[in-house]
Specification:
Shape: elongated
Number of helices: 20
Number of strands: 6
Number of domains: 3
CATH superfamily of the largest domain: Fumarase/aspartase (Central domain)
CATH class of the largest domain: Mainly Alpha
Oligomer: single chain
Low-confidence stretches: none
Mean pLDDT: 95
CATH topology of the largest domain: Fumarase C, Chain A, domain 2
Strand content: under 5%
Helix content: 55-70%
């Protein structure tokens, strides 16, 4: 195995130890970041007079060709190498000779891998934010088309009050908007360059860390060399952000699964995002929604795994930290796939609006409005609550809705009822008179949609 160490050792490393210690087969995906960081380091070394300009140019050309050969498939991961760092450096030395040996001057694998992961997660944060933005645009488009589509709102999975599909979808818009904000906050917090921290105590070479940070588009160098090589907060924070994001996707998937059932009949999922049964020919299963719901736990597991790995580590770098990559990479791939699939699935959903509206009518969702009607007639709300409870009991016995109760029967329960009760408890009245900020009334919804459009426009302007 090609290593970056060995002078201190008199025995070969046991083969099983080599395999157990190696990370090349999972950290190979960091090759672009490793080469990018090495190029910046080489430029800085030349600027500081630590290597010559000819050596710098030779290193840069060698690294460029290595990257090209990796991307063309000429170079691939091999158990000959311990990690991506030894892979790149060993191949560089093979190609350009002595100049390649000078690249690691003033650098340790500790600050090198810290840099690679920051560069990688910075890209991931941007890509995840873009995917969330695309989902927000889809939600907003659905809301704009369904400001008059009535449906039941639920608490405890019981019909509660009438809302609109736009109102329901915009609730998820708020969730994913917060997800976008968390990702943006993380990006600001983690955008500092650890290169130059060395193994843990910096270096005696006159490095220009500010210059390197600028080359790599970081805000500044990290402040403390020990923290620089041992910090994985930004990665934990990404996994926490991703866990909340996956929780939101899972909640929405749960609703789509319910709505897609025969009992609800609110939606139909597109064939391209459904599967069938091997034995029951009538089945059309919401497998994609179910898998996204299931994969939520996988991302939770990655977060928990890294928290447990880091919780007992003394300063500074420890080999345990190598365990950050496999779980993080798996979570990143999971989130990316789930976001793309969910957005595609949601775009193709067919909403059965008449079924939703009929469900709202039959679930006593206007009971609160009926109580408010009596309050407006002068009755105390607690008494009105009791009266409408008796009306609902009557409806349950007769298997009818409140608006189907004859006026004479309503008057027997309470003489304050008059003909205007039916208009007061219609779905349109129940929804449209709710005009406070964030309510389902059309004026409030249109304002919420406008705010959502402005949010997306602001994101686009910052891109």
């Amino acid at each position: 195995m090609a290593t970056l160490w060995g002078g201190r050792f008199t025995k070969e490393t046991d083969q099983l130890v080599q395999e157990f210690n190696a990370s090349i087969f999972f950290d190979f995906r960091l090759y672009r970041q490793d080469i990018e960081g090495s190029m910046a380091h080489a430029r800085m070394l030349a600027k500081q007079g630590i290597i010559t300009e000819d050596e710098r140019d030779s290193i840069l050309e060698g690294l460029r060709l290595i990257r090209q050969d990796i991307e063309s498939g000429v170079l691939t991961a091999s158990q000959e190498y311990e990690d991506i760092h030894s892979f790149v450096e060993a191949n560089l030395i093979k190609r350009i000779g002595e100049a390649g040996k000078k690249l690691h001057t003033g650098r340790s694998r500790n600050d090198q891998v810290a840099l690679d992961m920051r560069l990688y997660i910075r890209e991931v944060l941007k890509e995840t934010s873009t995917a969330v933005t695309e989902l927000l645009a889809t939600l907003l488009a659905i809301a704009k088309e369904n400001t008059d589509a009535y449906m039941p709102g639920f608490t405890h999975l019981q019909k509660a009050q009438p809302v609109t599909l736009a109102h329901h979808v915009l609730a998820y818009f708020e969730m994913f908007k917060r997800d976008h904000g968390r990702l943006s906050d993380n990006l600001k917090r983690m955008n500092y360059c650890p290169l130059g921290a060395g193994a843990l105590a910096g270096t005696t070479y006159p490095l220009d860390r500010e210059y390197t940070a600028g080359l790599l588009s970081f805000q500044a160098p990290t402040e403390n060399s020990m923290d620089s090589v041992s910090d994985r907060d930004y990665l934990i924070e990404y996994l926490a952000d991703a866990s909340i994001l996956m929780m939101h996707l899972s909640r929405f998937c749960e609703e789509l699964i319910l709505w897609n059932s025969n009992e609800y009949g609110f939606i139909e999922l597109d064939d391209s995002y459904s599967t069938g049964s091997s034995i029951m020919p009538q089945k059309k299963n919401p497998d994609i929604a179910e898998l996204i719901r299931g994969k939520c736990g996988r991302v939770y597991g990655a977060l928990q795994s890294l928290l447990v790995t880091m919780k007992g580590l003394p300063l500074a770098y420890n080999k345990d930290m190598q365990e950050d990559k496999e779980v993080a990479f798996d979570a990143i791939d999971t989130v990316s796939g789930c976001l793309r699939l969910f957005n595609g699935m949601l775009k193709t959903v067919v909403f059965h609006k008449p079924v939703m509206e009929e469900s709202a009518k039959k679930g006593f969702t206007n009971a609160t409005d009926a109580a408010d009607y009596l309050v407006n007639k002068g009755m105390a709300f607690r008494d009105a609550h009791e009266v409408i409870g008796r009306v609902v009991l009557y409806c349950l016995e007769k298997k009818i809705s409140i608006d189907e109760v004859p006026l004479e029967e309503l008057k027997k329960i309470c003489p304050l009822f008059s003909e205007d009760i039916y208009e007061a408890i219609s779905l349109s009245t129940c929804v449209e008179k709710r005009l406070t900020n964030g309510a389902p009334g059309k004026a409030a919804i249109l304002e919420e949609i406008k705010n959502g459009q402005e949010f997306l426009a602001e994101i686009e302007s910052q891109a």
